Amino acid sequence: MDHKGSPESAQTLERGLRLLRLLADGHRARTPTELAQELGLSRPIVYRLLTTLQNEGFARRDAEGRAHLGFGVLVLARAVQPLLRAAALPALRRLAEDAGATAHLTVAEGDEGLAIAVVEPTWTDMHVAYREGARHQLSRGAAGLAILAQREGRTDYTVTEGQLQEGARGIAAPLPGLPWLEASVGVVTFGALDAANLGPRVVAAAVELGTALA
User: Fold this and answer.
1) How far is Cα 200 from Cα 129, in angstroms, rounded to an integer?
2) Do residues 186 and 176 touch, judged by C-beta distance below 8 A?
3) How far apart are alpha carbons 46 and 105 in whole angstroms?
4) Which three-class secondary structure state does DSSP give residue 117?
5) How far apart are CA 136 and CA 172, in angstroms?
6) Which residues partner with 72 through β-bridges?
7) Percent helix, strand, coil in the chain (nearest 5)?
8) In the chain, what is the greatest distance between 2 CA atoms, to the nearest angstrom?
9) 182 in Cβ contact with 143 (< 8 Å)
10) Residues 6+ apart with CB under 8 A from 63
11) Cα–Cα dist 126/90, whole Å
12) Distance between CA atoms of residues 113 and 172, nearest Å
């Protein structure tokens, strides 16, 4: 008998997705007991769910038995990147033209930030050449630092100078309201940056894109 459409299968899927979201949203490892408590499930159920996720590469256990998000999710993330890029381009174009600076969307992949969408302004004489696919440590540059700030509960804009490229100044803000995605919207330029004026525009662009993806 085929039980694929049974209520039990749907419940197992729902529980597995809740567990996956918890691993993705917590930014810290958890024991199966802690996971069971946070999900309101028994430990045997959590163990079975973890085993299934581990077998598919979506979860992993460290030497102390704590559960982490598995690297298999990166495959799914890369499949989603073209969709994110397409959704981000309109907001990034407006931001680049408004700011006269190169605008970008950066997503977190482990300890690195990956630029998946970049738009350069059309009317400036000089702008930063920032290529799609560029990677950098989250601890360097406005885009990565904005993502790290969001992990600490801060959603305002971040300003940096010369951290990734000499003479370049950047402003970035995290995308709010998307527990499944760690990302930031930002601008970078060699010119002067009026952070008090431009910062709120970057935040507004991040909110616009976050709302579109919610």
Assistant:
1) 23
2) no
3) 35
4) strand
5) 14
6) none
7) 45, 20, 35
8) 69
9) no
10) none
11) 22
12) 12
> What's the rounded Cα separation, in Å, for the pair 57 and 206?
31
Q: Which residue has the tokens 């630092």?
A: 145
Q: What gap in Å lies between CA 54 and CA 145, rounded to an integer?
A: 30
List C-alpha distances in Å: 119 to 82, 112, 189. 15, 21, 12
Q: Which runs of consecutive H residues, i.e. helices, occur in the chain?
A: 7-26, 32-39, 43-55, 73-99, 142-151, 195-213
Predicted TM-score of the model (pTM): 0.74
Tens place of pLDDT per residue across the chain (214 aa): 445 557 888 899 999 999 998 888 756 789 999 999 999 999 999 999 999 999 999 999 999 999 998 888 878 877 888 999 999 999 999 999 999 999 999 999 888 999 999 999 998 887 777 889 999 999 999 999 999 999 999 999 999 999 988 889 999 999 998 877 899 999 999 988 899 999 999 999 999 999 988 7
Neighbours of 54 (CB within 10 A): 15
Residue 57: helix, strand or coil by DSSP? coil
